Amino acid sequence: MGVIGQIGQWFDRRLQLAAPIREAAEHPVPRNTASWFYVFGSAALTVFLLQLVTGILLALIYVPSASEAWSSLQALNHDVTLGWFIRAMHGWGSNFMVAVVLIHMVQVFLFGAHKFPRELTWIVGVFLLLMTLGMAFTGQVLRFDQDAYWGLGIGASIASRVPIAGPIIVKLMLGGPIIAGATLSRFFALHVFVIPGMLIGFVCLHLLMVLKLGINEWPMPGRLVKKATYTAEYHELTKKDGAPFVPYAVWKDLFFAAFILLAVAACALYFGPFGPTGRPDPTIIQTAPKPDYFFLWLYGLLSYLPPSMETPALLIGPVVVIAFLVLLPFLSGEGEKSWRRRPIAVLTVLLIVIILGTLTHLAGYTPWSPHMNAWSGDPVPEQFSTRQDCSRAARSARLPGQAMPQLSFSRRLRRPKRTRARQRCRAAHARSTNSTGDPRRRQHARLRKEFESGGDDCLGCVS
């Protein structure tokens, strides 16, 4: 036995990992599951590992500071060797991960793999999808460019519509009343520590249940799922027509995972990294931020909804969809698995794909831009006419519980006019004029400095 074998035996005597690893690799699977339809789960795991590696490399350079985040991304793009390629791999890896997880979920649904006894496996997969979307959103915020800044403002406005708890959620989300340094620190912690830690735990739980319960057999028409007999029938199938996962079925997973990695690398080389665009500027409120592609359908939906339907769509819609996905294995835990005999399931998937695809396409052409209404229509408070400090006056005039501008998502055919927030700031600056120069320029320099350092700046201030 060579030196490497002796070292391996030394570790195995103490860790006792060889037997569990061998058992997992050689666990029997039905022969007809060695199919290209069953490769999306392992591909999603591969892209997740890619995200972990590239994310760690980016975290070595990225600075989660309002004044340095944008510059650190520019340094990665132009100064660090292959920094642009690592950023591009991470960005395109995020896109591929969302797409592969969605495809895997659709395949599981159409093949009836959410039925007994894999209900919990499906529920964990639903939460994995939600966490994947959460990683995508927080990653977009960390670019901290103009789109990310106002996209986060829209997200905070959505959260502010939650009854009673809205202002508290916004304050927890932003780390204060405005988007600044504390906001970026919180989203960095979410993106780098909290959500990845939860993803790792849920992925391990998901894999454990797949190993314990077995890979879903190929759905044959007429083969019904019955709770009383399914487990015995599945074990009988694996004994009669089973094969070890390694090496019988693993080669297709490895081939497809390699193909996905090459596709991510090709997109990274050809298209390059995402952003950052212009520096985040809270004084530019006439803007039309657009999210990344996996949220564009929501952008398109909100563009064409009447204002009266926005809040129900934002607050009730997601709850209903998530509740339906969680309850699905309990509502249809038995019966037919084959998609050929489940026309309602097939039509539902086609309808959802058409709706989301249409909304995503329309989102690229809609003339909608957010209507910024930072304050109410009340008269200008007296303190705005007497105080010289615009930032202090703006803080004192903010309504109780109003932490962020309220954004209306209905479609606009033209850019919004100057808001009351801008008028108030102009009035405050005008009152501070004296004979020692241009106070507005000095005031704006101070406000921008406060913003970059995470200070409590005035969102309605314009240059």
Structural key phrases:
Cytochrome Bc1 Complex, Chain C; 6 strands; globular; disordered C terminus; mainly alpha; 2 domains; 17 helices
Quick structural overview:
The termini are far apart. The protein is mainly α. The protein has 17 helices and 6 strands.
Strand content: under 5%
Structural class: mainly alpha
Give me the count of strands. Answer: 6
CATH superfamily of the largest domain: Cytochrome Bc1 Complex, Chain C
CATH hierarchy class name of the largest domain: Mainly Alpha
* Sheet with the most strands, sense and barrel status: 2 strands, antiparallel
| Net shape | globular
- The CATH architecture assignment of the largest domain turns out to be Up-down Bundle
Number of domains: 2
State the low-pLDDT regions, or none.
Answer: 370-381, 383-437, 454-463
Number of helices: 17
First-to-last CA distance: 75 Å
Helix content: 55-70%
CATH fold topology of the largest domain: Cytochrome Bc1 Complex, Chain C
Average pLDDT works out at: 82
H-E string? HHEHHHHHHHEHEHHHEHEHEHH
* Major sheet strand order: 1-3
Radius of gyration: 27 Å
